[in-house]
Amino acid sequence: MASPLRLLSLGSTHWLRTQSVYHALAETMRAGSPDTIIFAQPAQAYLCIGYHQELASVLDRAACEQMGLPIVRRRVGGGATYLDANQLFYQCVFHHSRVPPVVDRAYAMLLAAPVATLRALSLNAELRGENEIEVGCDHLPSSEGGGRSGKRIAGIGGGRIGEAAVVVGNLLFDFDYEAMTRAWRVPSESFRRLAAGALRERVTTLRAELPHPISADEVEARLVAEFARALGRPLERGELTEAERRKTEELEKRLTSAKWLNLHANGARPMSSLKISRGVFIRAAEAEVGGYRLRAAFRVRDGMIEQALLESEPERDWAEEQGRMRGVKIGEWLNKVREEA
């Protein structure tokens, strides 16, 4: 019989512990350590940035403080995320030797259960790209390419921490679009407007997709069953070891320290590119065109401009040029403006 997976069901948990526990398990992981799946919901709202991000570039610290949102940096990649009690986290911490070495296969292995859970709720869910779960998809598998895009309903990150392979994700019961929008440090309000619109259009929730409310306990129970089925290993409730508890407490100080939060600090300007969902980005650019200092914000899908907002000094009406941007490759926007200017 396959060895069981340890299940840690933390329930409603202090916001920082929802990050420190899986980091602690990863840092103490050895070949003899149990592979573990953690479920948790943060009792307070907070923001979490990816390992490679520069805090000063992606988040407006003053706005975050006004909203009372603490910030933590995780040790796995991905973008800045707003997290709160309306989200159920699942966090997989496995020894790397028990996970496929190829990244997309590792994601496929550990995300099969969340996808199956959404399908059990009568949502047409697919794992798209490497690690994005979408609902409202057609039936064309992502490995075949193409197919109608759905909406993102989960945030997912992953990576290697010490000897551990880590995949973390969440399912959105509801989402505070306004808080996420306010928290970004953006190069212009046009950029923020495009990003806010794309976020509402491309990111959905269980509340929006299901005809009736569903509890976190119901979803967690389904996830437990689907993880056992997908991985061929039963889940058994467990507890943290004393070493893991000590490491958790240590990490709660480290992950929020000024030194760690300001890792990669380089006097950053506001971000010029923001990923919204698979293939959809908001991008910013500046250029001199015919005596105008032009500032542009674009909504881009698969490399093609879907919407453009242009501003300039001195001021001028760019509405006609904005309309002609639609369908233009993002790399050719400036040539297009110069043709029309």
Task: Name a few traits of the molecule.
341 residues, alpha+beta, BirA Bifunctional Protein, domain 2, Enolase-like, domain 1, six-stranded mixed β-sheet, four-stranded antiparallel β-sheet, 12 helices, 16 strands, 33% helix
Q: How many independent structural domains?
A: 2
The count of β-strands is 16
Radius of gyration: 21 Å
CATH superfamily of the largest domain: Bira Bifunctional Protein, Domain 2
- Output the structural class: alpha+beta
Percent of residues in β-strands:
25-35%
Query: Helix and strand string, N-terminal first?
Result: EHEEHHEEEHEEEEEHHHHEHHEEEEHH
Query: Count of helices?
Result: 12
- Biggest sheet architecture: 6 strands, mixed
- What CATH calls the topology of the largest domain is BirA Bifunctional Protein, domain 2
The CATH architecture name of the largest domain reads: 2-Layer Sandwich
Report on the structure:
This protein has helices at 17-28, 55-58, 61-66, 103-120, 177-183, 189-202, 206-209, 216-231, 242-254, 258-261, 319-325, 333-340, and strands at 5-13, 36-42, 46-49, 71-73, 81-83, 87-95, 125-128, 132-135, 151-152, 156-161, 164-172, 235-237, 273-277, 280-289, 292-301, 304-313. Strand 13 (273-277) and strand 14 form a beta hairpin. The strands form four sheets. A six-stranded mixed β-sheet has the order 10-11-6-2-1-12, sandwiched between helices. It has a four-stranded antiparallel β-sheet with strand order 13-14-15-16. 40% of the residues are buried. Helix content is 33%, strand content 29%. It is α+β, with helices and mostly antiparallel strands. The model is unreliable at 139-147 (pLDDT under 50). Helix 1 crosses helix 9 and helix 5 (177-183) runs antiparallel to helix 6 (189-202). The chain has two domains: 5-261, BirA Bifunctional Protein, domain 2; 279-340, 2-Layer Sandwich (Enolase-like, domain 1).
